[in-house]
Structures are given as C-alpha cells and as structure tokens.
Inverse folding.
C-alpha cells in the first residue's frame, strides 16, 4: 500500500481529532484529507482513487448519519463512523446503511487501521467491478438496434429458427446478427454472453417452449 | 130555544119527540093572553070598519097580529098560538060577527093557514130574525106576507062565506075584498107588531130636537089626516102621503108604524063617524070600501118602502161613518207617524201619534211668518245635523216625484231626539199628476242605538283584533288567506288587495315571499298537510318583516267547524318570538363560547375565538378585540374577525393609538352602542386616523370594555355592521357578557402564559440536569480530548518506533497530547464550577415554598404518570439559605427519579414528600414504592447508573448541590418497599433564632 494509490477522508468538527487522526494515519504512511464539516467534504474535489471516509456522527451543519443518507445514492467511498458517545440506535442505523464500522471515541489504532484497510480494499474491488460493467455497457451501446433485439432472444435460449421467426427474419440473417453480437460483446461462449446479459440486467423474455409466456 | 133534554126518558118513542118540543116551547101565558087580547081587539077594529052592509070586514088587523107573532116565534110554539088565535077568533065571532060556528071556524082555519104560510115564507126568504130593515126584506114581506099569504085566507074565507051564504055573498064578489082586507091588515099591523115586539125593551132615546120634530110631525100628520080624509076640504086622501113619507124618512119603521096606526085610527074614526071620504051612499059604498082598502094598503106599502130605503140609507151612512171612524182610528192608532203633504210639499196632515210625538195639538202651530210650513217644520222638529240633508232630500223628491227614504232624528215633545226611518211617496191620479205626498216615519231609535252599540262593539272588537300584539289571520278551508289583522299587514307591509286574488299558486308564491327560504318549504308542506287533514297547525319559522328583516314567529292555526264538522275557516295566530329565539340562541352561543374558551391554550386562540364567536352570536360582519397591557396601547394585541364581505380588509392590522373612541370606552369602562351616523357625530370620534383608505368602514358600532378581576381595563371588544338592522340593547348585553368572558379568558391565558414561561425555565434547568443530556454533554466534552490523546499517543509511538525514529513528529504529537489532556481536565473543572457558581444567589426562604413550586412545576408530569402524591410539610419551617433554582433542581431530580422508579410498578404509585425540622437542619425525605436501591452508596458516584439511558450524573450533581449548601444527601430503603432519598439543609441560625 503506497501513499499514492489510495486516500483517507476525515470529517470531524474537532480540529484536535482531525490533527490526531491525520498524524496517526500519516505515521502509517497513509494519505489523508480532513474536512471540518459535511459541506466542505461534499464540495471538495476528490481524486478518483480507492478511498475511505472517517465520519464523525456529531457535526455542526448536518450530522454524519444524515450525510450518509444523502450520499448513499451516489458513488461514494465506504464510511467508518466515529462518535463521542455512541448509542445503539445510531450504530445500528449506520451499519444497516452500509458503514464499514462504528467506532466510539476513544478508539484503539488497531481497530481504526483494520477498518481503514478493509474499507479501502472494499472500495478498490467496487471500483474495478464498476469499471468492468462500464466496459460491458459501452459494448452494449455499440450494438445495432437489430442486434439489441437479437441479444435477449439468444440469451433466452431460443433456437435460431425460433428467434428468426420471432423477429420475422431468415435464420441465416439471424445467425449473422448473433455472431456479430458475440464478437461485439466479447463473449467467448453463449454461457459467457448469458452472464454478461445478466450483469447488464437484460431480462429473459422468451421461452424456448412454443406458446410460452411472453411476460 | 130551550130544550130540556134531561127530561127525555129512555124508552120513549120517536113520535113523542115533536109533542115534547111543542110542550117545551109553550109560550108564556102572558104572551098568549096579550096575543089573545090583540087578536080580539083586532076583530073589534075590523068590525068597526065594516061599514059596508053585506060585507064582512074591510080591514082584517088580526091577520097582521097573527103573522107577526108567528114570524117572531118558534115554529114549535105555533100550535099554541094557533090554538090561542082560534079561541080569539071564535070569541070575535061570538061578540061581533055572529056567523055560524062552523063557518067561523073554517074562516079561522083560512086565517091560520094564511099566518102559517106567510110566516114560513117570510122566514124562509130571509131567515131569522126578521128586521124589515132593508128594501129587500120589506119587499119580500110585502109580496110574500101581505101578497101571497092572504090568498089562503081569502080563498078559504070566501069559499066558506059563499058556502054558508052568509049575508048572501058570492065567492067571486067577496074574494077581492077579503084578500085586500087581509093584506091591508097585515101591512098596517104586522110592521107595528114587529117593531113593538122587537123594540119593546131597547127603546131608543130621542134628543129634544127629535121629540120636537116628532111632535110637530104628529100634529101636522093629524091635522092633514083630519083635513084630507074629510071629503069637504081636500080633494084627495093621498094628501096625507108626504107626512107619512116624512115620518118614514126621519123615523123609519117606528115612524111608519106609528103613522100607519094613527092613519088607521083616524080613518077608522072618520069612517065610523061618517065624515070620511070613504063613506058614501050604499051604491058607492062598495066602491068606497075598495078605495079605502087601497088607500090604506098603498099608504102602508109606500111608507114601508120609503122607510126601508131610508133605513138602508141610514145604515149605509152608519156603516160609512163606522168605516171612517175605523180608518181614522187606524191612522191615529197605527204605531207609525203619518203626514200628508201637498204636491208643493206643504204638510197638511199629521196623524195623532205624530202630533203627540211633537206635543202639538194642531198642525197649524208649525206656521211661521216668513217661512213655508215644510221648512219651518223641518227646522223646528228635526235635529240640526240632519235638517239640511232632509230638506234637500225632500226638495229633490218633490222636484222629481221620486219617493224618498232616509233616517234622521226628530225632536220629541220632551226635547229628546229620536232616530226615525222616514219614507215618502207620491199619490198620483190616473193621468199621473201628483195629488198628494204621503210620508211616514217609524221610530228606529232603539234599533239605531242598538246598531250603534253593535258598531261600537264591532269597532272595539276590530280594535282588539288589531291591537292584540300578535299576528292574526284567517284562511278559507282551502287555505286562501281572507283576513289579516292590521298588525300583520303592518308587519308584512302587505297590500291587502294582493290577497283578494284567488289561486293556490298565489298563496304559495306569497308564502315563499314572506317566509325565510330555509323555512318556507317545510312551512308550506306542514300547512298543506293540516289543511288536508284538519289537524292543528303549530310551527316556528322566520317571517320577513316589511323592512326586510326575518323575525322568528311561533304560529298556530285551528279550524272552525260547523255542526256537521266541516271546516268553515281557519284561524291563525303568530307571535313574534324573535327576541326570545335570539336570546336563547345567544345564550347557547355564550355557553358554546364558554366551552370553546376553556379549550383555548393561548391568548391568541382566546382572542380569535372571542371575535369569531361574537361575530357569529350577534350577527355582525366585523368583530375586533384589542387588549392592552397595563392600559398601554403601545403593546396592544389585536384580533380581527371579518366576514366574507370584508375579506379584502383581512390584511389590515394597524393598531389603534387609544386616543379616539376606543380609548373612551376603555377609560369609561362602559359599553357603547352607536349607529353609523351617531358614531360619525360622536365627539370622541377621530375618524380612521391615518388609515382611512385601508380601514374597513364602521357601519354602526358596538363596543364593550374588557375588565380584569381588579376592575382594570384591559382592552375592548368591538363589533360593526350588523347583518340585519342596527345593534340592539340585547346585542349590547351579549357583547358585555362576551367581553366579560373574554376578560376572564384573557386573564387566565396570561396567567397560563406566565406559568408556561416558568415551566419552560424549569424545563431548561431540568434539561441541564437531565441525566441523559448532561451525560451526553459531559461525555462529548471529555471524550473528544481523550480520543485525540489516544490517537496522538499511537502516532507518537509509531514515530518513535519507526526506522529511523521521527523525533520531530513524535515531539509534536506529545505536545498535542499534553494540550488535549489539559483540555479534558478543564472540562471537569468547568462542570464542578457549574454547581458552585451560585453561592452569591442564595436567599433566605422557607423550604415549603420551594417544594410547592417544584410540585407545581411537576404537576403535569405527575398526572401523566398517574402518581399519587402524599405531601407532608411541617408548618412554621425555619428559613434556610438556598439557591432556589438549584434546590428546585434537586427536588425535581429526586421526584422524577422516584416517579421513574415506579414506572414498572403495578401497585399503588404513591410518592411521599415529607419535610420537617430536625434540630439544626430541615430534612426532606422523598419516598417511592419502586424496586428500591441496590447500591445505596455507589449511586451517588458520577457515571453510575441503573437506568438504560442514564449516564449516572444526576445524583452526583444533586449531592454536589446539597453539599454545596452545607447539607447531606443519602439514600435508604423505604418500608415496606421502595427507596427513600433524604437531604438536609442547615437552618439559618442567625435569622431563625
């Protein structure tokens, strides 16, 4: 782990905490960036590297749990909550909404570091996964409209002639479209294509059995 | 006729009956004797006149006596008379005639037949009693009695004489003499007999003049008779006729009878003495005899006829006089005033009643010198008020000839005026010219007075109907209104003529027009139902008054039925109950307001409620309430309630400065009620100030001051623009009551606000001491530096153990650690200082007031938790020196702890508070019935807690406070269960002793 391939964001209204955590993480060779309020954090430019967020529950503008709720819909790093006096309802709510850990001040450096390591690993995984999916989406966008029609029929398991009949085209034409789809989606096999379709949330709309449900 | 039926015995044969009647009708002996005497004298008289030799008699008076007797007596008695006559005749025969007895008897039989037939015929002809008073009677008597009857006697007599050859008479020779002799006898004697017999008792009395006349007549008659009958002096015996006729005319039958008797006597005397004209030589004797008979017969006949005519004339005159008298009596006695006027109108006759009425004896009394009689009469006798009218009416009628009729007052003799009903009509001749005017008048005074009384009564009744303070009306059976009393008409402002038009649709339209739209349909439905079923109608609804206001009325109607039960009319009554209804409504409104006010929790709400309710109850478009604080308008709070009409003004909230009419009401503390004009004219009215263009217009103004319990003004309630009409005294009363309620509510709300403020203060204090909050705060304050210290320590360690050690960074972190540790220490000392700072705020006061305050502040929570308090505070507690807020905090904390401890307790939640003096201290014990305290020493240590959400600071702080006051706080078990916390506070020695 180097100081440049990840970053730890710290949001706490108490400067002493910001200083102390920055010092501690620096002693572990981590890169940190600290904010005095939730607003400062939201408005800041954040580098696109694996990261984690150490968030105080009590904040002057909006409280930490509220911030978690607000950014939940977007792309954000995993959160580790810290609090002056933890109560059970707050911690349960925080974990439920995806927090990596909920630490009560004063906390040990080991707990904190373990949480940070886990959080950054989680963020890294999440980032690569999202990068793959983006590539798949890009490939899907490259398909022609007809190919986008062919894809769900093929992954539904229809025979070529069934799919051709469904679209009102010849079996040969369908085979050409199917080959193009396989190539463009970089699918090694039909099974691979099915997996890709699943990642792209392409629904299986047809059944091979004649007269099957069209739902 | 006397019948003695009691004498008739049973068993008698029918044949005996006539015999008994004959017997019972036997005449008196005296009468029979007189008859006998008269008959015999008659015979003698006849014999004396029988001067002609060879002739029996020339005049036969007994025939007259006989026939007159039979005419006057009952046929049943006739046998007696016949018998008596027979005896008399036979006596006469013996004395004078000397005929053979059989011949004499036969002659008598003839005479008897003559009398019987004559009497029977005369009686048949004109019934009984025969009076010989009319010409017809006389003629019948002469013809039948004197003409026909003697045929019998003449025939039988002549036959007998001829048969027996008495004095060698032949039948034919003697028959005429016989017949004339009998007839003359009857004519001469029968009237005399009838008159004498009939008038025997009731003799008429003659006046002296009559006697003189009678005497003179008698003398003239006798003289003339003597002269005329003597053949020497006058040529004819008939010269005697005028005196006879004179007697007949003047003295009628009596005169005739007397005259004829005298004539017969004179004739007889002269004839006997031979001086008569009828005496002659034997050759002419027979002729003379006939002439004598004729003379007497004609004289008698003429006299009788004239007497009858005279009699008849007299009787006609008498009858006329009777009728006239009767008529005059009628005219005088009929109970009507009658007068007659000439065609020109001059009164010529007043009947007696009228004269009596006026107290006059003669109509001429009316005449005045320079006035005609009609005008004078009217002026004198008619009421001055009626005279000109009557005179004009009469003149009109006289001019036109039309009849007239009018009622007027006439002055009675005693001066009293009486109402009469007068009528006049003209009497015209065949050509239509007016001959007379007849006018009558009838006294109708009593009627007029009765009518006047009736009219008075009617007027009185009508007045009653109009003045009774209700609306009265009458409906026809089909619901058509046909009468409204005046009040109804005034109330509704109706034109009565509108209701004369029939038609049910009109009725409905009318009702719809005068009844409030909300009530009309129901009223019409109910009324129709009643009209159909005949049930009583009773309802309350709103009627539109003439000025357009709707007033509540209570109406009732009942049908009037005839004997057969059919409805004749409906009579209805409605009285105005609007004031009552409004009063009830207002009362209800006040009650609702009172309830609504009770529910109000803030002053704003109170003011809003009052204004809205005031507007609703009184019915105004605008209600404003202004409250002042300590009578200062600068802090006035306003609440405004406006109807939709003034919706545009809802934003207007300029505050009054209290200088104008508002201030007047507030200063006087008296309500004020003004119309719009009165308001504008009021001296205290200053217009709308600077807000004239925004201020809603005040159309009438009603204001009532708000007065608190001390009598101080705290503002006013104002209303303006009443929905209907002007504000009334009742409205003012309601406004005053509302203002009173508002005052109470405002006072209470202000107290409530004060209390709330106190509670908020306490809440803040309590919050500071509230365990969770305090511990959270303390934790945060302490944990922040602690966390920084820990983190910095780890960093320091890392810098020191690094290869090579980063001493600069380590040094820096150590400095931060020291800084943060000091900061943590500061937190603790700050908390300690928090409870020490109030030493100088202590005051001396009895603890019971502090306890009372604490309990008061906890009252709501106590009730919510359903805790029963048992407070026992010793009286006359000594003063203690304390910080009121801190001790309150201690009390509140301990009380709340006790209450929370009993949250789970199912048994009686009793919290005991006991305060008493124990030597130098005042000890307060707070006991609960919760689970009790397990660690009675540790609970006072900071951060020790037995509660799920506590930080364990409350009791520690309480102990700090109590100890800061020089007291002690501890916990113990409560018996039989629960905990007891007690604290002491030292008595302030220098003051309490």
């Amino acid at each position: 782990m180097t100081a440049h391939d990840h970053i730890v964001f710290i949001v706490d209204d108490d400067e002493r905490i910001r200083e102390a955590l920055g010092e501690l993480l620096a002693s572990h060779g981590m890169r940190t960036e600290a904010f005095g309020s939730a607003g400062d954090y939201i408005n800041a430019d954040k580098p696109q590297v694996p990261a984690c967020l150490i968030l105080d529950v009590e904040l002057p503008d909006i409280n930490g749990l509220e911030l978690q709720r607000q950014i939940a819909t977007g792309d954000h790093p995993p959160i580790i909550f810290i609090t002056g006096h933890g109560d059970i309802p707050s911690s349960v709510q925080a974990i439920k909404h995806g927090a990596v850990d909920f630490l009560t001040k004063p906390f040990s450096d080991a707990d904190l570091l373990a949480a940070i390591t886990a959080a950054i690993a989680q963020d890294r995984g999440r980032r690569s996964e999202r990068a793959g999916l983006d590539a798949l989406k890009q490939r899907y966008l490259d398909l022609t409209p007809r190919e986008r029609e062919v894809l769900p029929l093929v992954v539904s398991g229809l025979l070529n002639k069934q799919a051709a009949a469904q679209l009102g085209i010849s079996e040969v034409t369908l085979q050409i479209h199917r080959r193009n789809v396989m190539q463009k989606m970089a699918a090694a096999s039909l099974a691979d294509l099915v997996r890709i379709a699943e990642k792209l949330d392409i629904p299986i709309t047809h059944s091979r059995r004649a007269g099957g449900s069209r739902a | 006729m006397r019948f003695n039926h009691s004498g008739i015995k049973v068993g008698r044969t029918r044949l005996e009956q006539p015999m008994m009647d004959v017997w019972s009708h036997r005449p008196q002996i005296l009468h029979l004797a007189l008859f006998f005497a008269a008959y015999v004298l008659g015979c003698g008289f006849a014999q004396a006149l029988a001067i002609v030799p060879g002739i029996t008699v020339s005049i036969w008076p007994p025939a007259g006596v006989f026939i007159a007797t039979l005419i006057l007596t009952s046929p049943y008695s006739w046998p007696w008379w016949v018998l008596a006559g027979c005896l008399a005749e036979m006596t006469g025969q013996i004395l004078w005639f000397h005929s053979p007895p059989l011949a004499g008897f036969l002659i008598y039989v003839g005479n008897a037949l003559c009398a019987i037939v004559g009497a029977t015929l005369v009686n048949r002809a004109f019934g009984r009693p025969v009076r010989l008073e009319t010409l017809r009677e006389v003629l019948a008597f002469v013809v039948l009695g004197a003409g026909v009857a003697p045929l019998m006697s003449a025939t039988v007599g002549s036959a007998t004489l001829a048969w027996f050859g008495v004095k060698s008479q032949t039948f034919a020779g003697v028959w005429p003499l016989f017949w004339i002799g009998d007839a003359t006898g009857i004519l001469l004697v029968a009237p005399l007999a009838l008159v004498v017999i009939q008038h025997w008792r009731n003799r008429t009395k003659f006046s002296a003049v009559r006697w003189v006349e009678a005497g003179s007549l008698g003398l003239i008659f006798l003289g003339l008779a003597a002269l005329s009958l003597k053949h020497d002096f006058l040529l004819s015996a008939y010269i005697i006729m005028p005196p006879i006729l004179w007697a007949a005319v003047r003295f009628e039958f009596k005169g005739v009878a007397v005259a004829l008797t005298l004539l017969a006597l004179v004739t007889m005397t002269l004839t006997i003495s031979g001086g008569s004209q009828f005496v002659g030589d034997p050759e002419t004797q027979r002729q003379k005899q006939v002439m004598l008979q004729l003379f007497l017969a004609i004289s008698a006949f003429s006299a009788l006829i004239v007497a009858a005519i005279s009699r008849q004339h007299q009787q006609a005159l008498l009858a006329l006089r009777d009728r006239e008298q009767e008529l005059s009596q009628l005219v005088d006695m009929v109970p009507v005033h009658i007068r007659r006027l000439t065609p020109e109108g001059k009164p010529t006759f007043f009947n007696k009643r009228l004269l009596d009425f006026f107290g006059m004896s003669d109509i001429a009394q009316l005449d005045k010198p320079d006035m005609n009689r009609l005008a004078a009469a009217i002026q004198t006798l008619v009421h001055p008020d009626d005279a000109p009218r009557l005179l004009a009416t009469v003149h009109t009628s006289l001019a036109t000839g039309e009849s007239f009729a009018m009622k007027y007052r006439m002055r009675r003799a005693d001066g009293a005026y009486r109402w009469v009903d007068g009528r006049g009509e003209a009497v015209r001749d065949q050509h239509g010219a007016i001959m007379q005017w007849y006018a009558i008048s009838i006294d109708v005074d009593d009627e007029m007075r009765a009518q006047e009384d009736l009219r008075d009564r009617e007027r009185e009744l009508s007045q009653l109907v109009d003045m009774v303070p209700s609306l009265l009306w009458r409906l026809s059976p089909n619901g058509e209104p046909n009468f409204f009393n005046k009040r109804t008409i005034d109330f509704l402002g109706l034109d009565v003529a509108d209701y004369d038009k029939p038609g049910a649709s009109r009725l409905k339209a009318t009702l719809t027009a005068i009844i409030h739209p909300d009530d009309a349909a129901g009223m019409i439905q109910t009324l129709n139902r009643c009209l159909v079923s005949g049930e009583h109608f009773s309802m309350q609804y709103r009627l539109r008054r003439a000025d357009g206001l709707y007033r509540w009325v209570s109406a009732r109607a009942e049908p009037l039925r005839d004997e057969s039960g059919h409805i004749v009319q409906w009579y209805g009554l409605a009285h105005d109950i609007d004031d009552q209804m409004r009063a009830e409504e207002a009362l209800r409104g006040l009650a609702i307001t009172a309830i609504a006010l009770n529910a109000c929790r803030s002053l704003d709400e109170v003011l809003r409620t009052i204004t809205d309710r005031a507007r609703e109850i009184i019915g105004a478009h605008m209600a404003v309430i202004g409250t002042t604080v300590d009578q200062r308008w600068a802090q006035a709070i306003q609440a405004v309630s406006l109807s939709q009409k003034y919706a545009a003004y809802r934003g207007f909230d300029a505050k009054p400065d209290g200088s104008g009419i508002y201030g007047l009401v507030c200063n006087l503390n008296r309500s004020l009620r003004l119309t719009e004009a009165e308001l504008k004219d009021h001296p205290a009215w200053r217009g709308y100030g600077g807000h004239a263009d925004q201020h809603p217009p005040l159309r009438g103004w009603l204001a009532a001051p708000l007065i608190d319990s001390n009598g101080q003004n705290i503002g006013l309630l104002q209303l303006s623009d009443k929905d209907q009409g002007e504000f009334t005294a009742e409205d003012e009363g309601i406004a005053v009551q509302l203002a009173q309620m508002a005052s109470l509510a405002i006072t209470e709300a202000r107290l409530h606000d004060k209390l709330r403020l106190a509670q908020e203060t306490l809440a803040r204090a309590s919050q500071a001491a509230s365990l969770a909050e305090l511990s959270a705060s303390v934790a945060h304050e302490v944990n922040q530096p602690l966390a920084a210290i820990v983190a910095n320590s780890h960093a320091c360690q890392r810098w020191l153990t690094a290869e090579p050690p980063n001493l600069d960074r380590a040094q820096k972190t150590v400095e931060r650690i020291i800084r943060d540790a000091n900061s943590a220490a500061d937190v603790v000392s700050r908390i300690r200082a928090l409870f020490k700072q109030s030493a100088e705020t202590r005051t001396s006061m009895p603890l019971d007031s502090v306890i009372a305050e604490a309990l008061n502040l906890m009252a709501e929570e106590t009730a919510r938790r359903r805790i029963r308090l048992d407070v026992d505070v010793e009286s006359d507690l000594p003063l203690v020196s304390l910080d009121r807020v801190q001790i309150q905090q201690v009390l509140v904390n301990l009380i709340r702890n006790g209450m929370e401890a009993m949250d789970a307790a199912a048994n009686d939640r009793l919290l005991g508070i006991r305060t008493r003096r124990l030597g130098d201290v005042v000890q307060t014990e707070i006991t609960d019935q919760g689970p009790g305290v397990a660690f009675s020493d540790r609970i006072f240590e900071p951060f020790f807690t037995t509660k799920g959400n506590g930080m364990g600071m409350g009791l520690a702080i309480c102990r700090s406070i109590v100890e800061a006051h020089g007291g002690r706080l501890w916990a113990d078990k409560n018996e039989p269960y629960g905990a007891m916390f007690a604290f002491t506070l030292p008595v302030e020695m220098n003051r309490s002793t």
Summary: Chain A touches chain B through 21 residues (CB under 8 Å). Residues 132 and 138 of chain A are 10 Å apart (CA to CA). The two ends of chain A are 50 Å apart (CA to CA). The longest strand of chain A covers residues 51-56.
